[in-house]
Amino acid sequence: MSRARWWKVTSGGRIACLLCPRGCVMEEGERGFCGVRGVRDHALETEAWGGSSGFAVDPIEKKPLFHFHPGAQVLSFGTRGCNLDCAFCQNSGLSRGGAPLRRTRPEDIVRMALAQDCLGVAFTYNEPIISAEFCLEVAGACRAAGLASVAVTNGFISEEAREAFFGAMDAVNVDLKGFSEPFYREYCGGRLGPVLETLVHLAQAGHPWLEVTTLLIPGLNDAPDMLAAQFAWMAEHLGRGVPLHLSAFHPAHRMKDRPPTPAATLLRARGLAEEAGLDFVYLGNAQLEDGETTWCPGCGRALIERQGFEVTEMDLHRGVCPECGTTVPGVFSAN
After folding, report:
1. DSSP of 89-101, one letter per residue?
2. Around 47, how many Cα atoms within 13 Å sit in the side-chain half-sphere?
3. CA distance 179 to 183
4. How far apart (Å, rounded) are the C-alpha atoms in residues 332 and 335?
5. Per-residue pLDDT tens for 156-181?
């Protein structure tokens, strides 16, 4: 256990966690909803500091991030626990389970990333927000070593912690799970409002680089009117250039009896997103032709072609289309 950063003592002498909008209030010996933050010796502590549930070298496209150094490799790792409880979670063993943690120091993670010739480190697999203190130390060590820090997150964070956490990141993919409060309440155990606030904060700040993912679950968050409202909101509040990844659902966790997302649903959703004015819409978790291709919004030229998580062709120099000179938003290495 290590001392947590965002908390206060209530008037009744209990400890209130201020890291996320859930605001858990705990007595001595109790833990919060996330399962890794609890009260000991009248202070809030976290068992996620210095812990990892495992490491893997992944393509950056797997996060998914398509406009942040395409083709690069990152060292991915997670801890355990989550501040949401999604019925469709695909990593429930980590997010709601008691997976053992391997003790690892920030400098060890940096050494592993450098040894594997990685662009940087990705905080993923479970929700990195709940281990924010450790993520910030790792991100600091990465920055000192010239490595990037990437967060794959649900965006469910408090205003008090938002700027510090995301200010340490170089790129973020926020999982916007649906576009209604009832959906978030019933199927995610959380609220939509704080996630939208996070997205607006990131878009207005302009750093870190932002991409968004929505998992389309048949019959739950894939209704055309809900999707049209989400895409219109994104175009207005985030901008046309923020990449959107529409991902196919596969049965998991408490939704093993629900069917996978049909290809037709993904294609229809992409059409609605393009009608709303979004320039970069990708289709994931499904083998669909051109679903992962980056097209120039100016002339329609294929600029980056992908197969699975592999970049197969790239015709983009410092983010500029060679055909018409249109600048593609993102963070691109010289190529």
Report:
1. -S-HHHHTS----
2. 19
3. 7
4. 8
5. 999 999 999 999 999 999 999 999 99
